[in-house]
Amino acid sequence: MAVMEQNAAKPQGGAFSDGVRLYVWAIVILVIAELIGAISIKAGHGKIVLLPMVWALLLGAALGLSQARLPRFAQIDLPMQHRAAAILQPALLLFVAKLGLLVGGSLPKLVAAGWALVFQEFGHFVGTIILGLPVALMLGIKREAIGATFSVGREPSLAIIGEKYGFDSPEGRGVLAEYLTGTIFGAVFISLFAGFVASLNLFHPHSLAMGAGVGSGSMMAAAAGAIAAQQTPEVAKEVATFAAASNLITTTIGTYFTLFISLPLAVWGYRVMEPVLGRMSRRGRANAEAAAVADAEAAKELKQASKAHTVEMNFGARLFAWVFSGALALIGNSLAFKTPFLDGVPGMLIIIGAVLVGEALYYVTRRKVPAVCWVSLIAMFLTSPAFPFAPVVEQFTGKINFLALVTPMLTYAGLSVAKDVPAFRRLGWRIVIVSFLANAGTFLGAAIIAEFFHV
């Protein structure tokens, strides 16, 4: 892979070069994660579902954290962790393309779903900020609060923050921390919270169901199950239907809400509230000067480390990342969903093609519109009724489950996370509270707005 590392110390020895070793570990981790499969843990009305992507993240993180105890040929050292982080962003575009392909073929269903499903989306992406951002600032969290509260931190949000700020930034660490917390604890929390709100009988079941579509399949299922358990069998079916429709919008069109509405709102809210709420924290009152010095030193160290291990990816490197990530996804698709590897190749070529066209438009338009938007729009067009070959595209790309595209990304994220452990440690328990509030906010915000529009 053509990757340039500036000022990086080249470790000597070892059986593999850094690049080959990283790719070998990525394959090993993905295969192990897919073979472990999904494990469900019951928790009240809901359950915690540990999917292969979670195992991939945890295995990658464990490998990075234990690198000092491993022989040289097996280590994932700091330069390699930065390399993995650099690969993560282009890999995320494959997932964005898959979501675009899904929404293009579902446009008639989205139109038939009604205005409630359209307007409730504002609640999903504003509610996280209303509840999460003020508390994050009062707890002493700085710019990490933007990444942690502008959404519930699912895969499209990772792509947006990665492209705009980079994963080495405070915003990047915030969204990754939100993703980690939400992935591990999100399903059980949203299940308990949604069940409690439903028991209050303040909202119509349809409104609660739309609130359940937070953009995560496991979280949506947990919330919808807790709500449906308190309804009649017929209404319970309606809850599942509305929750699925809402989740479809949140995972597709929701990308544009996060990019153009919630992220700018979170940045503006931070700028306005931080000077006031930041001083209200105990840390701000008692140790303002010491905290400022500590943050400045930490920021300087992170900047120096980032500069020392900067990884620049030219077009050839990005193309290799797309092809290799696509191959990993096909391996996972074969193991988890029993689709033969070769059967998925045509669909993966279409996905990579959509990414290439989107990237080209991104540069032709002088980067004024994010690549995430271009890739999503191109993919949506390929499966929309306006494209004459849409049925063929749907047939080929439909053989690739979108979850199979998530696992490679989380493998890269896991392999890169060890370099950010000091930053995560500084956030500590505070980010867990903020994550729970963001999840509660997205559910309540959507349910409140949907209550005014449901039939």
From TrEMBL:
Keywords: Membrane, Transmembrane, Transmembrane helix. It comes from Pandoraea horticolens. InterPro entries: DUF3100. This is Branched-chain amino acid ABC transporter permease. The chain crosses the membrane at residues 22-41, 48-66, 86-110, 122-141, 179-200, 207-228, 248-273, 319-338, 344-364, 371-390, 396-415, 427-450.
